[in-house]
Structures are given as structure tokens and as C-alpha cells.
TrEMBL record:
Keyword list, A-Z: Signal
Stretch forming the signal peptide: 1-22
Protein's name according to its UniProt entry: Uncharacterized protein
Organism taxonomic ancestry: Eukaryota, Metazoa, Spiralia, Lophotrochozoa, Mollusca
Origin superkingdom: Eukaryota
Entry annotated with the keyword Signal: yes
SUPFAM superfamilies for the chain: L domain-like
Keyword Signal: yes
Length: 177
């Protein structure tokens, strides 16, 4: 009897481990092992020649980071970028639905437009966000208003107008809570 119970326990633990360390939710990218203490995995989509965020398979696993960046030394913002460079121009509505992730990195991309509800579903998870624009687009503040857990926001190569500044003030009110 005792032996049987131990067997059941081991089976349950094994099943939980395989569920946690499931497939990578983005087929085109690689899931890297995380670092202690959390051991949450990283979805690595660096320099995959992406023109948009690839389809994401919904999962209950919580990821430390999704990185869609290019390395600065790859010169992906130059006039003739290599094929490996990610050049993501647009983030559409509900792009990250079904994903639980703490940090998203769009460094060295060319975001021209970010839909208002791009980040819906990430409200209770996202603490860090890095966006890089195309030098002409306005700061996409409306997309950020629901991200109340955000602790660090990096915005590069966007412009501001009065409406943007007004939206920023509203966001500051939200984030202060
Ligand atoms: C994602 O889901 C589709 C069908 O829903 C499945 O065919 C595919 O294998 C899944 N990809 C991964 C990486 O789990
Ligand atoms: C985004 O939200 C703002 C404020 O509600 C609104 O003025 C704007 O038209 C929205 N943009 C789109 C593309 O729906």
C-alpha cells in the first residue's frame, strides 16, 4: 500500500513538471532556461527576421521575459539591415493574449503604431516594457494605461504632442497607485 502511494506522488510531481516546462509558446523562437530564484523561462525571439510578433500559443506558464530585440552591434536600424534583423512595425490588438510574461523587450525595432489594446491580458504580469519607435510615431500611451503593475518603462525614438503628454499625466496617476 505504502509503495503504491509513493508511486502516485512521484507520478503527480512528474506530470506537474512536464506541464510547467512545456513547449515554447512561440514556435519560431527558443525558450531558454531561467535563472534562480524564480527559474522562469525566457522566450528568445532575438534576430529572427520578424516583421510582426509571431502567433503565441496560450499557456499557464509564467515567463520571465519575451525578447524581440536586436543586438545594438547588429546595426539593425541602419539603412540596409541584414535579413536576421527583427523589424516589427506594428503591434496589433490582443497580440499577447494567452501569454503570462513579466518583461517584453522591443529594443532596436521600428514600431510605427501600437494598438490601444495591444497588451491586454498582461495587466497583472507585466512589470517591465521596452519599446523603440520609428522616430515619427507618437508615444503609444493609450496602450499602457491598463498596465498597472509596470515598474520600468523605456521609450526610445518616439515623439510627443500635447495629447500624448496629457495621456502620460493620466498614466502617472494610474501607476502611482
Ligand atoms: C500551437 O498550437 C497549435 C494548434 O493549436 C499546434 O498545432 C502547435 O503544435 C502548437 N505549437 C506549439 C509550439 O506548441
Ligand atoms: C485609443 O484611445 C484613445 C483614447 O480613448 C482614442 O482617442 C483613440 O482614438 C484610440 N485609438 C484607436 C486607434 O482606437
Amino acid at each position: 500500500m505504502g509503495g503504491y502511494r509513493i508511486y502516485i506522488t512521484i507520478l503527480v510531481i512528474w506530470m506537474q513538471m512536464t506541464m510547467v516546462q512545456g513547449n515554447c509558446p512561440i514556435a519560431k523562437c527558443t525558450c531558454l532556461d531561467g535563472q534562480p530564484p524564480s527559474n522562469e523561462r525566457i522566450i528568445d525571439c532575438r534576430e529572427k527576421g520578424l516583421l510582426s510578433v509571431p502567433a503565441i500559443n496560450a499557456t499557464d506558464e509564467i515567463f520571465q521575459e519575451l525578447t524581440l530585440s536586436n543586438a545594438p552591434e547588429s546595426n539593425c536600424r541602419g539603412s540596409s539591415p541584414q535579413a536576421k534583423c527583427n523589424r516589427i512595425l506594428h503591434i496589433s490588438s490582443n497580440t499577447f493574449a494567452g501569454l503570462k510574461v513579466r518583461k517584453i523587450d522591443f529594443s532596436q525595432n521600428y514600431l510605427g503604431s501600437v494598438a490601444n489594446d495591444s497588451f491586454s491580458g498582461l495587466e497583472t504580469y507585466l512589470t517591465e516594457l521596452i519599446l523603440e519607435g520609428d522616430d515619427t510615431n507618437l508615444v503609444p500611451f493609450y496602450s499602457l494605461t491598463t498596465l498597472t503593475k509596470l515598474k520600468s518603462l523605456t521609450l526610445e525614438r518616439f515623439t510627443l504632442n500635447n495629447n500624448g503628454i496629457e495621456a502620460f499625466h493620466k498614466n502617472l496617476q494610474i501607476w502611482k497607485h
